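Q: I'm writing up a methods section and want to include an example of the input and output format. Could you take the sequence below and give the corresponding predicted C-alpha cells, formatted cleanly so I can copy it straight into the document?
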Amino acid sequence: MNRELSPSIALPPPTRVRYGVLAFVCSLAMITYLDRVCFAQAASNLKDVLGLNSVADLRWAFTAFALSYAIFEIPTGWLGDVFGPRNTLIRIVLWWSLFTGLTGMIGLTFLGPIAFQFWLLIVIRFLFGIGEAGAFPNITRALHNWLPFTERGMGQGAVWMSGRLMGGLTPLVWGLLVVHASMSWRVAFWVFGGIGIAWCIAFAMWFRNSPAEKPEVNEAERQMIAEGRGDQGHAHANVPWGHLLTSTNLWAVCLMYFCAAYGWYFNITYLPEFLEQEYSVKKDDLLGSIYKGGPLWLGAVACLGGGLLTDWFIRRTGNRKWGRRLFGVVGHSICALCYLACLFTPTAFTFFLAISMAAFWNDLTMGSAWSVCQDIGKRYAAIVAGAMNTIGNLGGAMAGFITGAILDHYLTAHAAAQGLAVSQLSPAEKSVGLLPGYHVNFISFAIIYGIAVLFWLRVDATEPVVPEELLPESGPAPQPEHDEHVQPPRDQIRGSEPRQPPEA
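A: Here is the clean output for your methods example:
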C-alpha cells in the first residue's frame, strides 16, 4: 500500500540513467538508417553486376525490404512487449547485420548465375527487412519503460533525428569510403554489418529492461519516470487483439502513417539515381552527396524540433489531443505543397531545396506520431507502434513498386515511340523518357499527403486503444536474466499515487 511521503524526507536529485538509454536507442536508430540507405547508394553498382537496364529494375528488391519490414512490425513489437526490449533488440540487430554483410556478396561468381543472384538479392532484402522491422517498435517500448510522460516527444524526436541524420550522412560516408578511400562497395557492406554486431555487445552489457533492474537508478528518478503513467502493467499472452483491431483511433494513426511513408520512401530508394540521371549529379561529387542526403539532414532537425514542440505545447496548454494533432496537420499540409514544387525545379539545387523541405515538414510530425503510440498504446506501446509502422511500411512497399512501375512505363513508352528497345537508348534519352514518370510520382505524393492531413484530424492522443477499465489483468513482470537480478534498495521509499497529467 502506497504511503504519502513525509515533508521532512527529501529525496536526492534524480539520476540521469534514462539519458543513457536514450543514447543507446538513438545510436541504434543511426545504424538502422546506415544499413538501409546504403543499399540505395549501391544501387548503381548492383545494377551493373546484375546487368540491369536501370535502377527501376531493382524495384522488386526495394519492395521486398519494405514488405517484410511491414509484415514483421507487429510480431516483433509483441515480442518486445512480452519478453522485454533487451533480448528482442539484441537478436534482431544481429539478424539484420548478417544480411547487411551478405548483400555485399551479390555478383560473386561462386553464388551462381546472375539471373539466380537477382532473385537471391530479393530474398536477402526480404530477410534483412524482417530484422529491421523490430527496431523502432522495441525502441518505443524501451522509451516507454524509461522516459517520464513529459519527455516522450523529446525522446521520440531525438530517436528519429538520429536516424534521419545518419541516413543523410550515409551518401557522404559511402562517397568517402567507396569513392575517395577506394574501398570496395562489398567491403562497405561488411563494415556496416560489423558495426551492428559491436552495438549488440555494448547494449547487452549496459541496458536493462526497466529502471527497477538498474541499480544506478535512484528512487527520485524512478518516481519521475513513473509519475502520471497509470499503466505500469506488462503485456503478456492475453493481449486484447479485438480491441486493438477495432480501434478507429489506431486505424487513423496507421493510415496516416501509410500516407506519410508512401512519399518519404522516395528519399531512400530512387532519389540518388534521379539526381544522377536528371541533373547530372556525379557519384563522387561532395556537393552531390549533400544533395542526396539533404532530405534526411533537414528531416533530422525537424524530428527533434517536432518532438520538442509537441511536448512544449502540451505542457503549456494541457491539451494533449491538439498537442499531437496540430503538428501533424501543419507538417503534412506543407509537405504536400513542397512535392508539387518539385515539378518546377530547373536545377539540382532548386530540386534539393524542394525535396528537402518536403522531408522537413513530413518529419516535423514524427515526434507526435510515435508519441501517440505511447499515449494510446500504454502497456501495449510496442504493439501499437508496430501496427502503425506495419501499415506505414506497406505504404513504403507499395510506393517502391508503383514508383518503379510508373518510371518503367514511361521509359518503355519513350523507347517504343522511337522504335527502339530500352537497352538501345542512350543515357540522355533514358533521362528524357523517365522525367514524366518522376513528375507523375511527385503529384501522387502530394495528393497522398493531403489525405494524411484528413487522418490526422481523426487522431486523438487521449483515446486509448484499450480503455483502462477493460485492460486484462497482467501477469507478473518478465523475469530478468540471472545476471540482471537486482534487489530493491532496503531504504526504498514509495511515492504517492501517480499524478495524472492534464488532458483535453
